[in-house]
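User: Assemble these into one structure.

Assistant: Restating your components, then the assembled model:
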Amino acid sequence: MSMYKPTILRTTQLDTPPRFCKPIGWLFVAIGMLGAPWLQAEMVELSPNLGRALSVEEIAKTDMTVLPNGEGLPVGQGSVSLGSNVYLRECLACHGEGGLGGVNEALVGGVGSLASSTPKVTVGSYWPYATTLFDYIRRAMPYPDSGRLSNDEVYAVTAYLLYANGIIEADAILNQVTLPQVNMPNREGFYWAEGR
Amino acid sequence: MSDYPEAPVAEGGLLSRRHLLGGALAAPLMVASARAFGAAPGGPMLPVGRLSDRGTALERIGIGSQPGTKGSGASRTPLEALSGTLTPSRLHFERHHAGVPTIDADTHELKIFGLVDRPMAVSVDQLVRYPLVTRYQFLECSGNSGVMIAPQPAQSSAGGLHGLVSESEWTGVPVRYLLEEAGMGSQARWAIADGADAAHMARSIPIQKLLDDALIALFQNGEPLRPENGYPIRLFLPGWEGNASVKWLRHLKLTDQPGYTKDETSKYTDRDADGRAAMFTFQMGVKSIITSPSLGFDVHEHGVYQVSGLAWSGAGRIRRVDVSADGGRTWAEAQLDSEPKAKSLTRFRLPWRWQGQPVTLVSRAVDETGAVQPTRQAALEGRGVGAFYHFNGMQAWHVDSRGKVSHVYV
């Protein structure tokens, strides 16, 4: 694409709007999207364009994000019973028996308590999406050795915690298809302050 | 000497800020013999400067980690011991979710993918070659001042109560340059940022913020970021809750929806009394605090003092700060030390004559949008039990007849 252009870069100063953000800049973008290559160059003028291309394989290797629709979930599956074993082995020391809380926070209980004088904020009572539980366990748990669990184990311990909260049945199997279908009790309990 | 001759402008001994506008105060001529200064040669030059006797005593305060962990917690800036607005980097507050990682800047990359035409990775050395910008701006944890929801006032110092805010000179690459280079797709509305720490802490950021004033910060107060502040690179979102300025940044994944990560659902959401909760409450409200006098810094001699503190707003510049010495009944406008900068700490002060009268000092900030810092009571209204994020209510110090300072609710 375009070369590094110091003469143009000098026009970018602290706290002045970028050329790109002026209406005329957006016009260039709009026209550029129609396919005029000399105007596309205008769109990237503020960047020296030093990035290297990232391959699909590289992205797949590093991207951990799981969206509520299931996008990003890996192949695998887990049962409540396997999850119970994983919980006892990996989670019990901090989160207590049955997920009811130990030296660190409770993961189970409190459904329906949020508007009361003693709200109990847990995975079951508060979290809007079950996919977040998978995403977070895979990212950050078990402390201090995150990344150790297999995908099957992450599915399983997710299943166990949802079962302990009364959200799924004892014989439920979670996988790429069934996890996004789990309806969390507080799914409708949030509104957006920004972003819309 | 007859300095500060005027009558008070508000109750409790507050004097007019005009005393501070009229230039230097008359000071008694100091006559000292040369021998009063060092007669023997002093110390040598050093590769790294040492702290003064009083500077050595300055430390982060309130360091606490979750049970069973060493680095999953917070430390606070000792605001009561600092002046001006800039926070020395070594005293910048901390909040980590799995400790401070050791990252090799030679191999670390920022990867940008998702809804972009050209997924890309840039190295730290490459980022330095982009057109960098420098800004003085605050970073504040959304949980700052959260202890103010407690039924009884916590007897903590100004930094203990409010020290999850710090000010730095941040230098970095405007994120919009990188999004332009990657070719942001028309469907992109959010970017999910995550870090290279062991928690891979992740937050979803509206694209508009990234195009507006977000930086990939590389330098803090002129030096490379410190490890605890995200070395080698962090996201920096001016005026927004600190948690969203993801440290040790490794990914920006552009999406058409937020990721609903753990830290934007189970945490950093604001529960209302009716049980519902606000998500994506990014912007920090208008706030001011008095750092002098404050708990731990009692007044002793009768006479003139400067009531001094800090004010800031995530919405922009501070317009004015008022100070009251009678718990909010009468107010006087404080002097701002310098031209307020957007989303930046502003120092205010006001002379005050103390003659042993008990007073209750409280400050109130107004920002350029006209937003007025609420009273504590107003800031509590409608909150769910235990909901402590984004607390910006006014905070008061009581000075008793002996000059002892304590935290009180008014």
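Chain B is about 10% helix and 30% strand.
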